[in-house]
Amino acid sequence: MTIIREQDFIQSIADAFQFISYYHPVDFIKALAEAYQREKSPAAKDAMAQILVNSRMSAEGHRPICQDTGIAVVFLKIGMNVRWETHQSVTDMVNEGVRRAYTHPDNVLRASVLSDPAGQRINTKDNTPAVIHTEVVPGDTVEITVAAKGGGSENKSKFVILNPSDNLIDWVLRTVPTMGAGWCPPGILGIGIGGTPEKAMLLAKESLMAPIDIQALQARGASNHIEELRLELYEKVNALGIGAQGLGGLTTVLDVKILDYPTHAASLPVAMIPNCAATRHAHFVLDGTGPVSLTPPSLEDWPKVTWEAGATSRRVNLDTVTREDIAQWQPGERLLLSGKFLTGRDAAHQRIADLFAQGQSLPAGLDFKNRFIYYVGPVDPVRDEVVGPAGPTTATRMDKFTEMMLEKTGIIGMIGKAERGPKAIEAIKKHQAVYLMAIGGAAYLVSKAIRAARVVAFSDLGMEAVHEFEVQDMPVIVAVDVRGESVHETGPAKWRMVLQQR
């Protein structure tokens, strides 16, 4: 009988979450490198280069790949012959491991989990509790898979109950474009088919834990219906032309994973969950001999890819930029930002909206007039860092506040990731503002451009407080210009046509 000791289990959970915060799985690195080599879209290729360079930097610096270090997800397969040496529940031990991982002083991870989700939404400060899925199986070991799932990809999860006669492929191809780019493609689509609604969602999530193997499957050919579905969806989703970061290109997904389960004769439940460019998971087994020891990837596993902004990038001084200046910027143009801007995301925008609704002024010292706002919730700094990884959050969540911010605060530009919706674009055009896009999945790279940081307002919001960042040569792309033209509309449309003509 195997004895699993409390501290071995807790330490293994903690070590695993630290490990995946800065190491991509090797299969992901290699698949993204192959996609980078194949890519013909300059914008998408540049985005993938930033993601690959960021990945290697994170591995070398042992700092998070993405500022959104995710909600902790743990899959457990506990052998029936295992005996536990502990007075805690398995759930309590998992949460203690997560707590230690996310508060580790050498690599603090962002606490994003909120209690009372439909009410006061209070940060738990240590990213607990985890989401735990447990099976009791034959055997004398404990198999553990840990994953850190960011909000950008989780928010794009989809579920439908189709009629048995409906076409699943058609549903996927209709649905993927509605997901936008907030899930930070290129990534992986996980699809669960069958069972009941909750079973289909679990299958989709669990499918994402498998290694990327679509190239090997293409080489040997499908041997069953699920593999045929994977191959067909891989080709057809990529033919949509969405591309890296939604900028248009050849690769939107690196793989399509599918798990299925028997279902009711009247039903066809289908769930779809994406994994983003910050794909993070690890699998290990405890056999009673001690805590897990995970093997880091070799630096040789990363491709010899470098990233430079390039001589064609326009340099922008944020401290002196005017409305006349931004009117000259073109959709898709690359900029290097230097100077100061303010930050803010969901909670800060809601706080500002509440103040205006109550007829109150903004806090002293918080002045947005003729400035830019960056949608970000950074990781806390460690050692000599000015700020931790600080990549952009999904801009569409701020669409509902865009008209208010442009009209009442005087901002002239916004920085985030992914596309803007119709109402936000309408407001941008109306107020002659701009929206700039930073690359999601390149948070550590972005943080190296930040030279100074201070909290300006709403310090009680933690990572959602309003900061002032001073940056030097921060790379962004003009995503929506003052005329309302969006590269997230023109880019995929162009590459969809290219792919259709092949």
Largest sheet: 5 strands, mixed, barrel
User: Would you identify the CATH H-level superfamily of the largest domain?
Assistant: Fe-S hydro-lyase, tartrate dehydratase beta-type, catalytic domain
Helical amount: 25-40%
Question: Largest sheet, order of strands side by side?
Answer: 14-15-16-17-19
CATH class of the largest domain: Alpha Beta
| Tally of helical runs | 15
Find the count of extended strands (DSSP E, 2+ residues): 19
Question: What is the CA-CA span between the terminal residues?
Answer: 60 Å
CATH T-level fold name of the largest domain: fumarase
Task: Return the CATH architecture of the largest domain.
Answer: Alpha-Beta Barrel
Beta-strand content = 15-25%
User: Which blocks of ≥5 consecutive residues have pLDDT under 50?
Assistant: none
For the record, the count of structural domains works out to 3
Q: What class, by secondary structure content? A: alpha/beta
The pLDDT mean sits at 96
Rg over C-alpha atoms, rounded to the nearest angstrom: 23 Å
Gross morphology: globular
